Description:
- The protein is of the alpha+beta class.
- The chain contains 7 helices and 15 strands.
- It has a domain at 5-28 and 99-260: Jelly Rolls (Sandwich).
- The longest helix has 17 residues, at 25-41.
- The chain is globular and about 50 Å long.
- The structure holds fe (ii) ion (FE2).
- Residues 149, 151, 236 line the site of fe (ii) ion.
Amino acid sequence: MELNGEQRRRFGEDGFLVVPGFKSRDEVKALRLRAEAIVDEFDPHTISIFSARDESAKSDDYFLTSGDKVRCFFEEEAFDDAGALRQSKALSINKIGHAMHDLDPVFEHFSHDKRLHDVATAAGLAAPLVYQSMYIFKQPRIGGEVRWHQDATYFETEPVSVTTFWFALEPADISNGCLWVEPGGHRSPLRERFIVDERGGRMELRDDTPWPTQASAQPVEVDEGTLVLFHGLLPHYSGPNRSEKSRHAYTLHAVDAGARYLPGNWLQRGGALPPRGFI
Ligand code: FE2
């Protein structure tokens, strides 16, 4: 699917682009059913809590070694003080990550095609490589906040190239924790860098430019099937979900093969499972 001139202009100017109806109802349904099956098969004795507000959770080995696997992560608020799940397992998972797009046939089908390749090249990726997939549940009542960040923090390349493909699998609005972005904010510097080395994972401050305020933030309320494409330096966040509705989304992160992928990035994909393009 070629982006038209107006879409390219908007992406360049705003740092993001909303494409309603990019995925069909059937494609969305197939992905949701497969995610449900993965969670159903998941044995929760391998517990890890993913929280973008708590950097120490990211140093968890379960997370750091998940770049070439398919793993389930719990919501931070999934457990009560006694350590029991507050709601069913199916309503307690924060996300599935991070290589379903290469390891699971249903996810692979959703994640690799000529239309996505064309969008990626229109967005400036001459030779896209898809490094990461995440199925994000944003569960009813306990769906966690993801604070302001830039995705280039987690996927640094020289020059910056990471581009996010965010697919709504359910309607997303302010009540169930939709995305918020700062239009034009992709022209701001990279503020933080998540680095992994022999000491583990940690966040480093790169630039003290403040995060956007609510006044300059824009909610991205979308229907299921919508693609939200955004630049790796675009500041974005999503609030907690206190509503009774879930807010499922699926994301892919791609970088340009022509850019240098830094060795300190947490997700390394060499060896038996090198990153592939969209086609
Ligand atoms: Fe993000």
